TrEMBL record:
The keyword DNA-binding applies. InterPro entries: Cas12f1-like_TNB. It comes from Ktedonobacter racemifer DSM 44963. It holds the Pfam family Cas12f1-like_TNB. This is Transposase IS605 OrfB. GO terms for molecular function: DNA binding. Residues 112-127 have a biased composition (Basic residues). It comes from the Bacteria. Residues 354-428 form the Cas12f1-like TNB domain. Residues 112-137, 450-499 are annotated as: Disordered. Keywords: DNA-binding.
Length: 499
């Protein structure tokens, strides 16, 4: 079985004085976590146990019962009358932190040992090991989870939480503003989270479903498998998606987002920041300048990435695609130009990465759509029908050469005409299919195949070229063709990914 998880973030409505109560509750929680962390440090052996066993052992160490009247490290030293669930939640939190701390300590010790065993080269002194050991957390600022019996009567718009007010335990009624629970999901224990001055309730949700088979199986065993390939751009259409079957039938294409408009707006904001900065002259250290403008830019990018990824997944779902395909992102090459221009390209590029990440988890949560990535090299330079090099041109201009970023393509071999980004997205889909054997396709044109000499080092050339933002020249581009047939390198270079 596979699992999909997500979080519902609900804004809370509460009386202003309750903010202090939440803070007091969190402070007590963190004191208890710190106490248990110390307990675990004093009894390191506990970490060899499972979480459940460790929890029992820690309770025996700290909690007095009839059978266990005198625990070694009583929790009552910290606070009297802590509810059982307000003990278990911190124990689990402390266990998590302790496991992570001790595992990094162990790795550090291993590195140190390895360093000390290394013999110095002849005539050289051995270098001392300078890396500092990890330190246990000095302050704790964990959000408080509410286990069952610490909360009750949850409805769409309110919930009762049991909190420590600073003097006693009491039930507080809090208003909720949140979205509905998506179909098939189940709620976990909510936590009270502080963001800025505002308190939120975060509820993890989870659903289980039958795990999909992997990409290779889907593609090689069922010719009706539909894949949705996505070409992400910095401007014009942010995402161009097309759905095709493994056999090569093209079913649908969708153009999503107006990248030019977003880039224009972002550039305007960046320009304002640059102007403000030039007028002020000096930037204060450790202080964010133009905070409002930066926040606007951040929110814009976040918002667009969510919108675009949601629409990609929606489109894939509508056409029953079971695999999403993206390109690997190349490295961003620094651009020349004004501050606003450089900053803009950088952010548009980051947004591509964000759209990929969001699409990946949204697709998985939607019903187990798997996301995969392929080599980005020359995906827009070849015809999706016959694999020949295409002519890319702007409308109203002569049909010759290759103009990067132009909207239209025509194939001199098979006369295929269409939108350049659509051609690229189809090509991206085909890359994935090519990885698993001959994809029921025509062979590339012989003239093109002859253009390149087949050699073994293509794997290296391939990964280096993939870093370029701008495509290589045509003569180099043709070398890309020989990777498609007879070499298995793509399967090993670009592995499938799953969340
Ligand atoms: Zn063609």
């Amino acid at each position: 079985m596979a699992k999909a998880t997500s979080t519902i973030r609900s804004a809370l409505h509460y009386q202003p004085q309750h903010a202090e109560v939440f803070a007091a509750n969190q402070a007590l929680f963190n004191r208890v976590v710190a106490f248990y962390f110390e307990c675990i440090q004093a009894h390191e052996g506990l970490l060899a146990l499972t979480n459940k066993e460790a929890l029992t052992a820690l309770e025996r160490l700290t909690h007095a019962t009839e059978a266990n009247p005198a625990p070694i490290m009583p929790l009552t030293d910290i606070a009297l009358d802590i509810p059982a669930m307000f003990r278990r939640a911190p124990i689990n939190a402390a266990l998590g932190s302790a496991r992570s701390f001790f595992s990094s300590l162990k790795k550090w010790r291993a590195r140190k040992e390895k360093h000390e065993l290394k013999k110095p080269r002849k005539g050289k002194k051995s270098k001392p090991f300078r890396e500092r050991p990890p330190v246990p957390p000095r302050s704790w600022n964990k959000s408080v989870p509410f286990y069952a019996s610490q909360w009750k009567e949850r409805s769409d718009h309110c919930i009762l939480l049991k909190v420590w007010t600073g003097t006693c335990w009491s039930w507080l009624k809090v208003g909720l503003l949140s979205r509905d629970l998506p179909e098939g999901f189940q709620m976990g224990s909510p936590s009270l989270v502080r963001r800025g001055k505002q308190w939120w309730l975060h509820t993890p949700i989870e659903k289980t479903f039958a795990a999909p088979t992997n990409v290779e199986q889907q593609i090689t065993t069922n010719p009706q498998t539909r894949i949705c390939a996505v070409d992400l751009n910095l401007d014009q259409h942010i995402a161009v998606c097309s759905v095709q079957t493994v056999e090569g039938t093209i079913l649908a294409t969708s153009f999503i987002g107006n990248g030019t408009e977003i880039a224009g707006f972002r550039k305007l904001l960046l320009g304002r920041i640059a102007r403000n900065r030039s007028q002020t002259g000096i930037l204060a250290e450790n202080e964010q300048d133009n905070a409002d403008l930066w926040r606007k830019i951040r929110h814009l990018d976040e918002h667009i990435a969510h919108l675009v990824s949601a629409r990609i997944v929606q489109f894939a779902k509508e056409h029953q695609a079971s695999i999403l395909v993206f390109e690997h992102l190349g490295n961003l090459q620094p651009e020349k130009g004004k501050y606003s221009r450089r900053g803009n390209t950088k952010r548009a590029y980051w947004m591509k990465g964000r759209i990929f990440r969001y699409s990946k988890y949204k697709a998985w949560n939607a019903s187990g759509i798997i996301t995969s990535r392929v080599n980005p090299r020359n995906s827009s330079r070849h015809c999706h029908r016959c694999h020949a090099a295409v002519i890319r041109y702007k409308q109203g201009q002569p049909e010759s050469g290759y103009t990067p970023g132009a909207a239209l393509v025509v194939c001199p071999q098979c006369q295929m005409r269409g939108h350049a980004d659509r051609n690229a997205s189809l090509k991206i889909g085909q890359r994935l299919l090519e990885r698993y054997g001959d994809p029921f396709k025509e062979k590339p044109h012989t003239a093109v195949r002859r253009a390149g000499r087949v050699s073994k080092e293509t794997g290296v050339a391939l990964s280096q070229d993939a870093r370029r933002q701008k495509g290589p020249s045509i003569s180099e581009a043709r070398y890309g063709e020989r990777n498609a047939h007879g070499t298995a390198q793509q399967g090993t270079l670009w592995m499938d990914e799953r969340p």
